[in-house]
Amino acid sequence: DEAVKSSQWLLPYEQALEKSYLRRLAIITELKNALVAEQAELSMVYQPKVFLSTLQICSMEALVRWNNKLLGFVPPDEFIAIAEQAGMIEQVTTWVMRKTINDLAMFRAAGHTFTIAMNLSSHDIQNRALLDKLADLLAAQGLEPTDLELEITESDLVADADLATENLRQLKAKGFRLAIDDFGTGYSSLAYLKHLPIDTIKIDKSFVLNLSNDVDDQQIVRTILHLASVFELKVVAEGVEDEAAFALLRDWHCDIAQGYFISKPLSIAALTEWLAVSPYSQNAEKL
Ligand code: C2E
Ligand code: MG
Ligand code: MG
Ligand code: MG
């Protein structure tokens, strides 16, 4: 309160600094509460991915949502980054893992065979105890690591390529499927593709959102598709927002598409309704 009152004496850039500082502080405090709260502020939504060749649903990406009474909706990009810096990411990921694996068990009980993709932060893939917990949680529900795909952002892998390679090898050895997220934004040398034990690359949505109008994006996407075929990797295009992009990607033999054109991320209730009316068929073979 004192801090807020005194901010009228600050210069505009100092005010902006203080505002962002206060927001960070509020996010840290409120997130701590949310992680132990009785009433659920955190939730998961699921966004389908479909095979372009067969129009079958192949998997659902789990995305975390946070609605706070003071701050309103806080985007995951923002609070995940702050949780990492504040040493809280393990708690957030643990929450996400528990919820997602419970939901996966429920989907299986309802007869759905799709894989679930979970996002991990760079801190998570270095946290052996957390990864052991992940395996334990799956086993407790009678699920296999192959039921889960782990998405790791390219820039996180590039930051320490040797460490990342070792950690990913261990995950792969346990049977998890691995995907590089936001591919194309990590300014990598691409040499690491030779060594990383990954199954899939997800082309960053910045190259896909305007695909049908932007010739440069078309060249980039086709180049990535070629690269992936050389390394025998599956490719997901994220951010497919219109039929034109969907059709181009299909023509170019991109494996999998994800984006608002297919579906926005959905709550479990909304997803259940979507599955009942969706034109995409279910029970595809496993990835
Ligand atoms: P991401 O994993 O690359 O997820 C894709 C983001 O693009 C999601 O934003 C999704 O809602 C959005 N998106 C999907 N299709 C479209 C489309 O057609 N058009 C546009 N404009 N956007 C689309 P979201 O849910 O806000 O998540 C942002 C990022 O936050 C994620 O990027 C991921 O890096 C991170 N994140 C989300 N949930 C989790 C989580 O549970 N754990 C961790 N560690 N990170 C998470
Ligand atoms: Mg992702
Ligand atoms: Mg992405
Ligand atoms: Mg991302």
Protein model, in words:
Residues 24-279 form the EAL domain. This is EAL domain-containing protein. By secondary structure, the protein is an alpha/beta fold. The chain has helices spanning 2-6, 12-36, 76-85, 89-109, 128-140, 154-159, 161-174, 192-195, 215-230, 243-251, 268-277; strands spanning 42-51, 57-68, 72-74, 115-120, 148-153, 177-183, 200-203, 234-237, 256-257. An 8-stranded mixed barrel has the order 1-2-4-5-6-7-8-9, surrounded by 4 helices. The protein binds ligand C2E and magnesium ion (MG) (3 copies). Residues 61, 119, 151, 181 line the site of one magnesium ion (MG). Residues 153, 181-182 line the site of one magnesium ion (MG).
What's a quick, concise take on this entry?
The protein is built from eleven helices and nine strands.
Beta strands, count: 9
The helicity comes to 40-55%
Shape: globular
Strand order of the largest sheet: 1-2-4-5-6-7-8-9
Bound ions, cofactors and other small molecules, one mention each: ligand C2E, magnesium ion
Category by helix and strand content: alpha/beta
Q: For the residues shown, what is the average pLDDT?
A: 91
Strand content: 15-25%
Largest sheet, strands/sense/barrel: 8 strands, mixed, barrel
Report the end-to-end length measured between terminal Cα atoms.
Answer: 53 Å
